[in-house]
Amino acid sequence: MTENTAPLRVPLVLLAAFAVVAALKLATGLFAPIVFALVVGVVLAPITDRLARLGLPATVCALGGLLMAIILALLFVLFLQPHVMELVRRWPILWAEAQSVIADVQRILNGIEEVADNVAKALDGDEGGEKADAGGASAAVPNVATAISYAPALAGQALIFIGTLFFFLLSRGEVYALLASVAPRLSVRRLFTAERVVSRYFLTITAINGALGLAVTAALMVIGMPNPILWGVLAFVVNFVPYLGPALFATTLAIAGILVFDGVYGIVPAACYLVLNMTEGQFVTPALVGRSMSINPLLVFVTLTAWLWLWGPIGGIVALPILLWVLSLTGWRVGWGPEEMPPLAARSPHKTAAMAGDE
């Protein structure tokens, strides 16, 4: 870049970044399943490599990883289906109870407002003022026709996800070699190292979240909360979205506890979850993941917020793996590096061929 064009570098970079963000936002239906499939493929990479070490063909290894992802997704959907149907069936009753609680809260707030108005009138003698009446709320429950209208789009995204995941698992080495040829600062070895970082981290976090889900299930079962297994599974899922996921889950659990139990006992379920979540965050995760993989909390929060704005729940799931991948590629110390990777002979055949040329 010449001296005359150097001042334009920053504006051009900002415009390019804006264009990329706009494209990701506008084409969510296309890019979200692709990126999600790539993240899942990176996480499943160790499993397909283990299958390759057994001498299985690359196609069989890729199919094995794909089937594992599909089976896990189907099991999750089958588990949630009866609970969702029960929630839909009981929604009018739950909404009536929620309205009763909301009315009680409104009466308390109105009383506080009246006291404040009386104090203000006593202080300045103002007899005026207007009060806004609280309007009624109505529950908006999606009907069957609305759900069916989303079916074609969801089916298309599912096909994009399946195709991307299969072909990525089938040709990871070639994909990394292509990226290395396009970006001179990257290498196939560094890309595989970043893959190992994301995979190890995600698998460790999955085990931790599973233990948290079991603990939440046991605690809610002891205090008599309905559907403790469902709450445990939800606790497992939302914990993949740091900060925002647990906060939303604690709020939902607090509302459910108030609807189920009377008095102060209604906040006990949320209190139990917060204690377990704080124990996991302060002691379990640092001990198993390691301090060397700690990331600046502000960076994590901003990244999560941006990806949630872009793609909603899928963005929240892929945000942290993508952040780890980028930090690893830029030289962030993660506790293991290329010197600690297994020798080429111990890797899968399709990975070995790609990395042999890099060396």
UniProtKB/TrEMBL annotation:
Its main location: membrane. GO terms for cellular component: membrane. Keywords: Membrane, Transmembrane, Transmembrane helix. InterPro entries: AI-2E-like. The chain crosses the membrane at residues 12-44, 56-80, 158-180, 201-223, 229-249, 256-278, 298-327. It is found in: Membrane. One of its GO terms (biological process) is transmembrane transport. It is a multi-pass membrane protein. Belongs to the autoinducer-2 exporter (AI-2E) (TC 2.A.86) family. This is Predicted PurR-regulated permease PerM. The lineage of its organism: Bacteria, Pseudomonadati, Pseudomonadota, Alphaproteobacteria, Rhodobacterales.
